[in-house]
Amino acid sequence: MRKGRAPKRDVLPDPMYNSKLVTRLINHLMYDGKRGTASTILYRAFDIIKDKTGNEPLDVFEEAMNNVMPVLEVKARRIGGSNY
């Protein structure tokens, strides 16, 4: 018998910025389970953003994420046996 599907785990906010979005970015940056290395790289990048722009790096990151997110969804339509 199979045990079933593993429960979906919620992403915990990161300790420095208390943001789930930052934690998700760290998880995407991470190679071979090296979370400390990935978080060091990200926090250094945030320090560079703060030095160059003078703005809060979390605000810059959230604004950048909003700029790249899609505004609307394009749905496929089936017309005459073909998908468009």
Automatic annotation (TrEMBL):
Pfam families per the UniProt record, alphabetical: Ribosomal_S7
Domain Small ribosomal subunit protein uS7: 1-84
GO cellular component terms, semicolon-separated: ribonucleoprotein complex; ribosome
Entry GO MF terms: RNA binding; structural constituent of ribosome
PROSITE patterns: RIBOSOMAL_S7
Listed InterPro entries: Ribosomal_uS7 (IPR000235), Ribosomal_uS7_CS (IPR020606), Ribosomal_uS7_dom (IPR023798), Ribosomal_uS7_dom_sf (IPR036823)
Protein family membership: Belongs to the universal ribosomal protein uS7 family.
Annotated PANTHER family: RIBOSOMAL PROTEIN S7 (PTHR11205)
Designated name of the protein: 30S ribosomal protein S7
